[in-house]
């Protein structure tokens, strides 16, 4: 089970001064690879397909914190609600309400991050600033979700100055929203940004959760 423990230790060293956490993105990788990284000390794993995450959860240690990082369909929330620790890509009030409902059925509170569209590409999911504010204005009275912060994906580009600008924009938005909607609370502190290719820039710009796959598990093969 190929897991790059040298890269794992390197990433952990980079995170330490920033007090950021690693979400090890294990999508498409076998349970044995996850177990190998677990044995090295990792506890947070990210998946982006519901069925795959449910299967792996059944096979692996119960103290793993499972983060759902993909696009979650409302009708599938019920399958992961019994165990999911955080949902990174919430981009509608309807989805947030469904997570609240399913979390309540399981007697749980589920951490959620609202996904903001920061990249220039049209295809990526996420809210713009106006939509984000509108969602938050209507998100009161959902006791079984905890809106923990924001998530974003930078443009897929070699222009690292642009990537940095996009991360900086997301951080500024988090600060503004925290001030407007979460003043005096201890929530809305999380900022999920940065992947294998750009996590160091993300850390410098205020990331608290980096989502790293290929650096740890090798390139993915979707064939
Ligand atoms: C796959 C994926 C990652 C990890 O990407 P790597 O480039 O392999 O580190 C991070 N975030 C999301 C949302 C993903 O789907």
Quick tags:
223 residues, alpha/beta, TIM Barrel, eight-stranded parallel β-sheet, globular, binds pyridoxal-5'-phosphate, Pyridoxal phosphate homeostasis protein, Ala_racemase_N, PyrdxlP_homeostasis
Task: Explain the overall architecture.
The protein has 223 residues and is α/β, with parallel strands linked by helices. The protein has one domain: Alanine racemase (TIM Barrel), CATH 3.20.20. 39% of the residues lie in helices and 18% in strands. The protein has nine helices and eight strands. It has helices spanning 5-15, 31-39, 50-59, 77-80, 93-105, 129-137, 160-181, 199-204, 214-217; strands spanning 21-25, 44-47, 65-68, 86-90, 110-116, 145-152, 190-192, 209-212. Strands 7-6-5-4-3-2-1-8 form an eight-stranded parallel β-sheet. Helix 2 links the parallel strand 1 (21-25) and strand 2. It is globular and about 45 Å long. The mean pLDDT is 95. Pyridoxal-5'-phosphate is lined by residues 25, 27, 48, 69-70, 195-197, 211-215.
